[in-house]
Amino acid sequence: MSDESLNENATPDEDILAVDGDIIADVEEELVEAGEVRFDKLKKAEEILRSSAPASFREAAENTFEKVVHINRCSKVVKGGRRFSFSALVVSGDREGRVGCGFGKAQEVSECIKKSSEASKKDMMLVNITHNTIPHPVVGEHGGARVKLMPASPGTGLIAGGGVRAVVEAAGIKDVLAKSMGSNNPSNVVKATLRALEQLRTKEQIYSVRGKRLADKKAL
């Protein structure tokens, strides 16, 4: 049978359905194209807003690394009994070369942690990091604490503990060897580690102070 005979034998309802199906398909294609264009415009607008808008406090808080190093409880004997107060030592950093520590006191644990966290964010310093480790060995002292930091090869990890580990991890150092000597007071150990990180200098900084410049690397 030919196509003409098939079309002649087709009922009017079938012809209407076929035409409706073609129209629906064309409309769906137009809607898909319009939707894709609209989605692209929305996506571009979101990218422009993200690039132009400053980082919100929530994003900054998510990117900040915080660790409670030590919590101390102090009791005071009064006429009605004993009154407790708490103090906390917190280390915070962005894991990209900025780190700081804070100390806070309050009647509640959560409140003293909040105070110390805010204090640590206000007192941050920059740390020179080279290839995920420190540029050279260094020793830091504070009070009776003495901390020695040494560079390590890639894959070594953080060979440190206590307050030293918290500070180097918050700074973004991934490979380091550390040794804590003398006092084990958490506050002194943290501050001695910060003193050690303050002394770090890159090769370019040392050469610039000496009035020299690095030799250009030659291809083999």
Structure write-up:
By secondary structure, the chain is an alpha+beta fold. Helix content is 45%, strand content 27%. The chain contains 7 helices and 8 strands; from the N terminus they run αααβββαββββαβαα. Strands 1-2-3-4 form a 4-stranded antiparallel sheet. Helix 5 packs parallel to helix 6. It starts with a helix and ends in an 11-residue tail after the last helix.
Question: What is the residue-averaged pLDDT?
Answer: 78
Strand content range: 25-35%
Low-confidence segments, ≥5 residues, pLDDT <50? 1-8
Helix content: 40-55%
Strand order of the largest sheet: 1-2-3-4
Q: Give the SSE string.
A: HHHEEEHEEEEHEHH
Instruction: Report the sheet with the most strands, covering strand number, pairing sense and barrel closure.
Output: 4 strands, antiparallel
> How large is the count of helical segments?
7
What structural category arises from helix and sheet content?
Answer: alpha+beta
Q: N-to-C terminal Cα separation, in Å? A: 80 Å
The gyration radius over C-alpha positions equals: 32 Å
Task: Please give the number of β-strands.
Answer: 8
Which term fits the overall shape? globular
